[in-house]
Design goal:
heterodimer; A: 299 residues; mainly alpha; two-stranded antiparallel ribbon; 2 strands; globular; B: 287 residues; ABC transporter involved in vitamin B12 uptake, BtuC; 11 helices; transmembrane (chain A)
């Protein structure tokens, strides 16, 4: 039971990073990344391949961050002149392409068999139980650091400029803000965070395959951010843990409803997730933890 | 000859993309958000057709039933979700559409399971026309699509509600001040968009296999065709879908079967970078 709790909390932390990544652009600048899971996968594969080639784990994580950021830059630069919803469509396509590459380029990704034996840092020294605890602590610390950094960002002039762009691009432009620059930077950082989350996931599971990166995860993260509160980093983190606990708790329920086949039960759960997303958007768009706009200090 | 054959096969595939893209472009042009539930509405259409087909054995009957079901589903999604979010950001509508699509996909998974199913069509000998083999089934499907397209264009161009739709697409505030009642126009739009997607879904289901993910997988080529054709332009979507279908089919000897979808992504990127208005559209620049 304890081992299970540790596992759930670690996955919760990884989802929290993804939620922070989405919240940075959705709550920050008013863009969305429909291909979040693609960037997540990109980071996972980048780190798995780099460490598989013999590099130390930290290099793999660094690589995942860089690859994620580059992919984010490519996507935003392709759609700079267009309305924001075009960017969302492009991210969706990119995720699809990443999935195809992971599935078909066997020489690189080993196709649908996936990559196994991904280095688990310190596992030999700590043992199984120790490693899980260590990894949970590590992921939690990273979530904490990223959360504090993004919260700080939110309250800085940079964060205020981002939210100004979210509310009214033209006005922000008139006020002399470099709208495009903010968008590109925010998206790159967000994509890098998703890449980092992927790397953490890969080294935690020590096995990844295209099956691990279903579009489902993107929906979970959208629900986490929407339910937690768009525009508030703490909201996304809270939402991510809530979603993971909902998912993990309902894992035990099929025993209670024997008349539903497990696959049907999973479908019911997905319907609930989708409905919650719609209901939150409709009835509580501000989420559990509404956004706080801290006024700029008087100078 | 081989390529001509591929092109003919591509046309049928292209019609499916065209229908999906038209549904997207109508909604995008008038309600102004990319409806990510379009693919899943197609899936609903495919399953509805699949339910009726064994009872009637008629493709036309399954098509009609599917179109009625998907028109109803689209209208309900408008009434319950999208209408209520009117006035919120594009992003909110887009995310809601993802939620709607996900719910539809899960319901299909719950009711029908994830085993791929097929329309069990009688095998028939292909017509030979000058060395080209043309499957009678493809002809029937193309006919079905043509009927749907003709209906859609007739509604858009020959009826008052269609004219009002185009007026709203062109300039929403001008349409409002000239007394167009947007509630009715929007309801009609969603019925039309749902019906078109449903027809595309049945076609796709007959051509390939029916499973809950089929429509979602169709979303990328459909968006690509909508953008390629020019957002808000049904004729552009039709043309772009046909081109994408043919290009995808004809490229298989070079890029292989698996990267067909990636090809539509690449075309979409090029269009966005070089000619964001698409073939027949107008630009939706940063406002």
């Amino acid at each position: 039971m304890l081992a299970y709790l540790i596992f759930a909390l670690t996955i919760g932390g990884i989802y929290a990073l993804l939620a922070l990544s989405l919240n940075l652009i959705w709550g920050g600048i008013g863009l969305v990344n429909l291909g979040l899971v693609g960037f997540f996968a990109l980071g996972a594969y980048a780190s798995a391949l780099l460490t598989g080639a013999g590099l130390p784990v930290l290099f793999g994580w660094g690589g995942a961050i860089v690859v994620g950021a580059i992919a984010g830059l490519v996507v935003t630069l392709a759609t700079t002149r267009l309305r924001d919803d075009y960017l969302a469509i492009v991210t969706l396509g990119l995720a699809e392409v990443i999935r195809l590459v992971a599935l078909n380029e066997r020489w690189l990704t080993n196709g649908s068999d996936g990559i196994s034996g991904i280095q688990a840092p310190m596992k030999s020294a700590l043992g199984n139980q120790g490693f899980n605890l260590f990894y949970l602590a590590l992921v939690s610390v990273i979530v904490l650091v990223v959360w504090l950094a993004l919260r700080r960002l939110d309250r800085s002039p940079y964060g205020r400029a981002m939210k100004a762009i979210r509310e009214d691009q033209e006005l922000a432009g008139f006020a002399g803000k470099n709208v495009l620059g903010f968008k590109v930077q925010a998206f790159a950082v967000s994509a890098a965070l998703a890449g980092l989350a992927g790397a953490l996931y890969a080294h935690f599971q020590s096995y990844i395959s295209p099956d691990h990166f279903q579009p489902l995860i993107t929906i979970y993260i959208f629900l986490a951010v929407a339910a937690g509160g768009v525009g508030r980093p703490a909201g996304g983190v809270l939402g991510a843990y809530v979603v993971v606990f909902f998912l993990e708790l309902t894992r035990f329920l099929p025993d209670l409803v024997p008349w539903l086949a497990p696959a049907q039960f999973a479908a019911c759960r997905e319907i609930l997730v989708g409905l919650s997303l719609i209901l939150v958007l409709r009835f509580r768009p501000q989420g559990l933890l509404p956004e706080q706009i801290v006024p700029a200090p008087k100078s | 000859m081989y390529f001509a054959q591929l092109a003919v096969n591509g046309l049928v595939q292209g019609l499916v993309i065209s229908l999906a893209a038209m549904s997207i472009t109508l909604v995008f042009g008038i309600v102004r958000f990319p409806n990510a539930a379009t693919g899943d509405v197609m899936t609903v259409g495919a399953f509805s057709g699949l339910v009726v087909y064994p009872m009637t054995g008629s493709l036309l009957a399954s098509g009609i039933f599917a179109v009625i079901v998907t028109a109803a589903v689209a209208l309900i999604s408008h009434l319950l979700v999208f209408r209520r979010l009117a006035g919120r950001s594009v992003v909110a509508l887009l995310v809601a559409s993802i939620g709607v699509g996900f719910v539809l996909r899960s319901i299909m998974g719950l009711v029908f399971g994830h085993q791929p199913m097929v329309f069990s069509m009688p095998l028939s000998r292909p017509y030979r026309i000058g060395g080209l083999a043309i499957n009678p089934l493809d002809l029937q499907l193309a006919l079905l699509a043509a009927v749907m397209l003709a209906l859609a264009f007739a509604v858009l161009h020959l009826t008052p509600i269609g004219r009002q739709m185009r007026a709203v697409a062109d300039n929403p505030s001008l349409a409002r001040v000239s007394g167009i009642r947007s509630g009715r126009v929007l309801a009609a739009l969603w019925v039309l968009a749902g019906a078109i997607a449903g027809a595309g879904g049945v076609m796709l289901g007959v051509k390939t296999v029916v499973n809950p993910e089929m429509g979602w997988d169709m979303l990328m080529p459909a968006f690509a065709a909508a953008i390629f054709g020019g957002i808000g332009s049904p004729a552009g979507a039709l043309l772009a879908g046909l081109i994408l279908g043919v290009v995808q089919e004809m490229s298989t000897p070079f890029v292989g079967f698996t990267y067909k979808i990636a090809l539509s992504f690449a075309i979409m990127l090029v269009v966005l970078l070089r000619r964001p208005t698409g073939l027949l559209g107008r630009i939706e620049g940063v406002r």
